[in-house]
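Chain X:
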Amino acid sequence: MDSFKVTYHPKESWASLGDLLFVDHPVGTGWSYGTHSPTTLEDIGAEFVTFLEAFYEEFPARKSQELVLTGESFAGKYLSFTGQAILDKNRQSNADSQINFKSLILSNPLVDVETERMHQHELGYAIGLYDDGQSAQVETLRRHCEESISDPDVSTSSAETNCKNIENYISNLAGGVNQMDARYFKSDNMPNDVFQDMYKYSDKVSEIKSALHITKKQHFSKTNSTVSDRITDRLDNTAYVFSDLLSQGIKILINIG
């Protein structure tokens, strides 16, 4: 008997406010398939605009509807560039070809990697995951992270590893506390685990894939290091893109937690 159940709550759904479209992007994440070609955040934005143009050509009645882009984590980078790409396209297009992009909704967005990595440990200290006895070691790891990011001779992947060591050290000190949600430990089942497991272990995966017209043979991929490793500017500070979007009237809602 399949233990994975999906229930629909129309009164609590985003679908009660408008049409909801999920896009596995960039290519290689989620159920998407094909060859991943973007190597910069600008490339990713341009690729998404190409998708939107194809979507509106197929469904022209949707073009007049307001477009709200939503995402979490790394979406703070690629969706901000996507928004910028849409605005750039609109400036070069006539009135009939405009994309009605108005706002961004981002959850825990990654924006300025260096600043964020330099201060994440402060939360661990504040909630008691470590104390003054370990502060010197945390500071050593933090300094190593900072030096790695600014050193042109250190690869992006190595810098990411050095910065991740801060969280790993604190997590291990606290007995394996979950780095995404301090209410849980590595041994606990996270609330979102059931959704990931559904794509892997449910005996109805074939039905799900058929209903969604999915032809990818591999399992669902929540993250894909092959995709991220090819994005050369993934650690760059993208705060200036947010400033540009805001200056052009785009509304941005950010939630943390």
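Chain Y:
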Amino acid sequence: MSKDNVVDGPWQKAPPPPEREPETDRPVALNVLIHEDLRGFLFETWRADMSLIPPVQQVNIVGVRPGVIKGWYRHQKQWEIITCVQGEIQIIAWKDVRDGDVQDAKEGIVEILNQRNTRAFVVPAGWWHGVQNIGVVDAVLVEMVTEIFDPVNPDKERMDPFALNGELWQQRRSG
């Protein structure tokens, strides 16, 4: 785990993360506070006082097998906060800058998440995003969303993971 945001010793109320202005138009990877001692660790995946997005309405646990790509997805209303608690993933979020021109996406962000890089990756509504397990074990993600899933009217648009540029995804790591 990164030691930059670790609080050692007895677990106690830690100071809140720095106040931030809402970022309503771009994905962002936020550091999370980690409490660690000889007994183990706890990391604060999300705190309401981070105040970046609408309130979280549902929490999901997502498993991704090694080498698997899940994406592209886009939501019109829903925001997502994703953390990786086991394994290692690459997460990519991008947005069309010219309507409908998938090959000319200009804005994007790529982040690697794992147990040592414990960050909360925030994906605003309207951004295409996907994850790839780049490790050798199943990745386990905590996904917090701002809309309750409605199977009759899902807020999910899908696209082939290689529609943008398959070279964005990493080759599976060995050993």
